[in-house]
TrEMBL record:
Keywords assigned: DNA-binding, Metal-binding, Nucleus, Repeat, Transcription, Transcription regulation, Zinc
UniProt protein name: WRKY domain-containing protein
Similarity annotation: Belongs to the WRKY group I family.
Sequence ranges assigned to domain WRKY in this UniProt record: 122-179
Cellular component, GO, one term: nucleus
Molecular function (Gene Ontology), one example: sequence-specific DNA binding
Subcellular location as annotated: Nucleus
Main location: nucleus
Highest taxon above the source species: Eukaryota
DNA sequence: AGCCTTTGACCAGCG
DNA sequence: TCGCTGGTCAAAGGC
């Protein structure tokens, strides 16, 4: 039902794969956007990989690798360490980078184009407390703390040279639910909808939403879809 | 006023 | 001990 509520808005952007056991993976403009505990409770990465492999590979082979990678992270102890995908499809020329979660940069568009560069739209509030150029300055690494009182969770976000997130490392576990919708409005309303989508009453589900953070280089086969999405955002339509 | 990012300084671990 | 590296602090300024 959450999917039904959400998909009407995001139908331009979503590719989705529903698996037989009820798992539902969302791929938002190439980002592996949402993992919920209910999605992840049963399968190991290996199982998911095999299930995904049974699907039409034409949907997006990279997606299967992302799903497998994220699931591996899900069941591993912290810190979570996600390596970047080795391959990504070619983007249309007007669009070099779109990350629905935290970075949305459209190049070749007017200066009014949307740029979302926030630490996370994962339902938690983060405060950046440092940034370092690591690995010889090749990859700037940002350090974030959860702003919730008494919550010690920290997140390290590593960016590639072109600004894409190539690695997110979480340390600790949240001791609270995700924050209210209020702050999500800061992200142009998109995340508010995501919150609706993931707004299960099951708090244990919410606690796993960090995995929404995995930003990936976009996998877009239809530039027009993004153009229409951008129009919607620019019109201020939440 | 409160919260945020930025950024140089500082600190700890390691070879 | 020294230098390097990664992580954190905290002042300053912006929104």
């Amino acid at each position: 039902s959450n999917w039904d509520r959400c998909s009407s808005w995001f139908q331009l952007a979503f590719h989705h794969i529903s698996l037989r056991n009820g798992m539902c993976f969302l791929l938002v403009q190439g980002n592996f956007e949402t993992f919920h505990e209910q999605d992840l409770a049963l399968p190991t990465a290996q199982v998911v990989h095999s299930k995904c492999s049974m699907l039409d590979q034409a949907v997006n082979p990279s997606f299967i690798r992302v799903a497998t990678s994220a699931l591996t992270s899900q069941h591993a102890s912290y810190p979570v360490n996600v390596t970047p995908l080795p391959e990504v499809p070619t983007l249309p020329p007007q669009l070099s980078s779109v990350n629905a979660e935290s970075t949305c940069v459209l190049q070749g568009l007017p200066s009014s184009s949307i740029t979302l560069d926030r630490p996370a739209v994962d339902g938690y509030n983060w405060r950046k407390y440092g940034q370092k150029a690591v690995k010889g300055g090749e990859y700037p690494k940002s350090y974030y703390k959860c702003t919730h009182r008494d919550c010690l969770v920290r997140k390290n976000v590593e960016h590639s040279a072109d600004g894409r997130i190539v690695q997110i490392i979480y340390r600790g576990q949240h001791t609270h639910e995700r924050s209210s919708k209020r702050r999500f409005k800061d992200y142009g309303g998109i995340s508010e909808d995501l919150d609706d989508f993931s707004g299960s009453t099951d708090t244990s589900v919410r606690s796993q939403s960090d995995y929404q953070d995995y930003c990936r280089k976009p996998i877009i086969s239809n530039g027009d879809m993004v153009g229409r999405l951008v129009e919607k955002i620019q019109d201020g339509d939440e």
